[in-house]
Amino acid sequence: MPKNKKTEWQLGDPAISVVSDQFCNPYPMDLMVKRKFQNFSKDNYQVYDPSGNLLLQIDGQAWGFNHKRVMRDPAGFTILTMRQKGLTLKNKWEVHGGESKEREDLLFTVQQSQAVSLKTSVDVFLAENNNVKKSNTCDFHASGGYSNISFKVFKSDALIAGVTHKFTWGSFCKGKYNFRVSVNPEVDYAFIIALLVMVDDNENWC
Fold it and tell me: What are the residue boundaries of the structural domains of the chain, listed by start?
């Protein structure tokens, strides 16, 4: 984060590239994320820009332990794979580039900030800071409220993205609902979307 006391990541700040430089844009991005349940065990997310162009798609299991999700580009090429790490005191995900499981392809780890929490609060550790058990210093932090899945993402004290979710019974009964995602300039939007998916999958972390 820049040394001056700013509250938001801005144009001119260093690029935050977690997944790839190709997902960092020099302007703010407003994205629409649509989640739709296909059946009891499977669902998918689709990410669109304001013009309605498909940018990313994520599929996988909607329920269960040790499940995974795969992020692909519009052509179906695998970008990254998210895997939940079974039953742990603090729910944890590992994210690898492509379809890999190898340690050298680890991009980042997402973990609950506290074992017991009634609101969204997760820490993100980049691969070079992967000794989560001994390190108390995360690279990013996401925090939100008690009543929905809306949350904000920070790098140190700087806001880098925000996620807004408005629950309606109509969309819930249809098996689908939407998120609005605001990504600050030079911030990797694929990383923010992956974080959203993992937080949403674990909305009942407690």
Answer: 21-203
Given a cut of 90, whether residue 12 has pLDDT beyond it is: no
Q: Look at residues 156, 164, 204, 203 and name the one whose alpha carbon lies nearest to residue 13.
A: 156
What single-letter amino acid sits at 79? Answer: I
Beta strands in the chain (DSSP E): 29-37, 42-48, 54-61, 68-72, 78-84, 92-97, 106-112, 121-126, 140-144, 151-155, 158-165, 176-183
Contacts of 17 (CB under 8 A, 6+ apart): 23, 24, 188
Q: How far, in Å, CA of 189 to CA of 31, rounded?
A: 9
pTM for the complete prediction?
A: 0.87
Which DSSP string corresponds to 84-110? E-SS-SS-EEEEEETT---GGGEEEEE
Q: Is the pLDDT of residue 123 over 80?
A: yes
What value, to the nearest 5°, has the Cα angle with vertex 49 and ends 79 and 6? 85
- Domain 21-203 sits in CATH at 2.40.160.200
150-174: pLDDT as tens digits: 899 999 999 999 999 866 655 655 6
Candidates 194, 189, 188, 181; CA nearest to 33 is: 181
Q: Got the DSSP string for 64-86?
A: SSS-EEEEE-TT--EEEEEEE-S
